[in-house]
Structure prediction request, 843 residues.
Amino acid sequence: MNETSRRNLLSFSGLAPLAGGLLAARAGAAATEAATTLSARERIRERYFPDVILRTQNNEKVRFYEDLIKDKIVTLNFFYAQCDGVCPGITANLAKVQRALANRVGRDIFMCSFTLKPAEDTPKALRDYANLYHAKPGWTFLTGRPDDLELLRRSLGFTDPVPAVDKDKSQHIGNIKIGNEPLMLWTACPGMAHADWILKAISWMDRSPSALEKACCDGKS
Amino acid sequence: MYYNALGEKVSRARYREMLNAAKNRRELIAAGLYGRRELAKMGLLTAGGMLLPKIGLSARARTPFAVTSQAASPMTRSFVDPLFVMPQAQALPPFRPLNPAPTVAPNTAAGESRTRPHQALTQFPPQKFYYVTQHAIQATQSPDLPVQTLWAFDDTHNACSPGPTYVNHYGVPILVRNNNRLPPPDQNGGFGMPSVTTHLHNGHTPSESDGFACDYFEIGHWYDQHYPNVLAGILSTHPGTGDINEALSTLWYHDHRVMFTAQNTYKGLVGYYLLFNQFDTGSEDSGFRLPSYPQFDIPLVFADKVYDPTTGLLFFDLFSLDGILGDKFLVNGKIQPFFKVHPRRYRFRLLNTGPSRFYEFFLTDLNNLSANNPYWVIANDGNLLPAPVQVTSARIGVAERIDVIIDFTPFAGKSIYLENRLNQINGQGPVISNPNGTGATECNCPEILPAGGGNLLMRFDVDTDFVRDESADPRTQTFYQLPQVVAPRVVRTFKFDRLNGQWSINGQFMDCNDIRFHVSQNSAENWILTNATGDWTHPIHIHLEEHQILSRNRVPPPLPIEGSRKDVSQLHPNERVQLFFRFRDWLGRYPLHCHNVVHEDHAMMLRWEVVPDGTGDKVEVP
Prediction:
């Protein structure tokens, strides 16, 4: 925080309960630093990203954190193959997103769709589903142990606060979580938003100078 | 498996302890066993302890249990920090003009990110210029927590969060050069998008200076915002003067970055903007004779937050879709401060910055819990009412304001608390005790906690130093009349809905490129807001012009506070609220959105535009 000049710190502390408060706070900071050496990124990982073992549509074993999201820009959503509510529209949207991003998917952007019904969505069923939507490499469909997928669903906030609604899979959360794991940037878009808007949200995750040049502002029309 | 509200695994024993603590406390409250000593023991005065933490936290339904009372943030003591009063924003001295000088067209070559020319810069030339930078600061919010990295506004004199308070007068246009020097995302401590747009909330502001959600700018860039500080109607219904009955007084500014407003405001990007005029003068010796600014007119920013139990650092639930509730209550950036006052009248401006909580403010005397301690509400959403209204409590949602007059004379030598007694346990809004209420009056009867059983927000320590008080007695005062209501050109309906967890308006989602309807400049409209989201309450905010609530469920609002000018209206469960608007003076894009900032970030927003007179559309369901 080079921006945080001594002047700022001083001007602010002058309004605080003065030196005693600041010193106590610093002592507190030292104590908590000793208690945990985890970085913000590691804290987020610990809190939200259980490294459960899942299985892809190609029947490969993958770990959620290590293999699917670590160091990547990702989209995450939940669905099930036989869902005839919001899923077809959302999956078709994601297919459009993949086509638009072309070869970036699988290179720096990765798409993950997790089943809500692991018992019926076997790797083979997921493969058929992926083929139906012409999914290309870089878009992974995932199944696994029901407990693991449930843990993942809850950890990533694909939940409804009303327990009866939360249990009803036909009312499952239709949002797509979008993130840049190393930069700790996370947001979410409705899965039924316009595909162009989902693409826009994904573009914000790319903080490279060339991407930012294009990012400046929106809605120019 | 057992979880606390942060979604962390806890042992079964710890979980039972949490439940028991909450239950004990509820029983004590129900039994009325609170005396001052008991309260002190239980941590309401010392804040902490096993029994304290109630109602809380991340509203995300991670646990399979209906847990409402859990310990999440580390213990902090209450009422050990004095109230921080934000310094006044300082304009640049005349000998230090902005360089490069402001231009009507966006100065893209010099790094400005504005996309449209200023529509009123030459008509209302700025007389004051501010150079403001958004950057990170280190600040303490409690002596019991480590130094926090916040995002602040810096006017070249003070960098603080909440930011410096702009104090301006009608008839004095200003220009703010707003610079983004926030740190890159990997230095943000786990949340916050260093891409910003600053909205002047309630401002009658040309679109390009409004801080529209999609006008965000990146690190290293800047944006000139022109605030004409004119009354609505100045170029239309009331040429040359504007309508005095549209005078605004308590505005605020905050980040409005599309999809990241919750993170960025939680990280500190909020502040006050006060407007005075010939009636609301800032001096109790003139005009309406309201208590003088700044000695006796104190802006208060309320926010509820959660701190990581291990590190003590500010925690934001990145994956919440419903709303975020904190278990720590901050006023002007400090957890539960105290404020020394004299036995006389004060004006307080109360602003709820969320992210998701509703407040109902009571004055609580812990030595006399059965006492009703009345105060006066003089303004709603910062706009002076036709006349002051005496109340024992008033409720505001996120982004709403009330200005109140508290007379501390009866409390000389004592301490009195500002307490939130509204029961809220998740992002849905206040707990509704009577879901079959009419909704026309008391918001389907939300649950009010017993005195002393809510959230003590701050403590007023009243001394016995009887000082001069020339402020007017609210009993005898009147302010502005309500602006005239005329027949609408078009009546539009907006259904606030939730489909598979996706927040929507008329079944569609926020998209910066999607203009949902066009309003004719200088025309009147009615907007009907309907709530199709079951038990959820939404604070709905519309930019550019204020509105008047014509009816709730077809019944005119009987409450004198609500039957006034508003810029946010609470939409309670199963309600239909009809609003009257005029859209005057400026052209361009503005949003309509839910101000539960978590809902707003998840697409419960739409873009509309004001277009030249006679070219608006008549789309009734945009």
In short: DSSP finds four helices and 37 strands in chain B. Chain B touches chain A through 91 residues (CB under 8 Å). Confidence is low (pLDDT under 50) at residues 21-71, 439-443 of chain B.
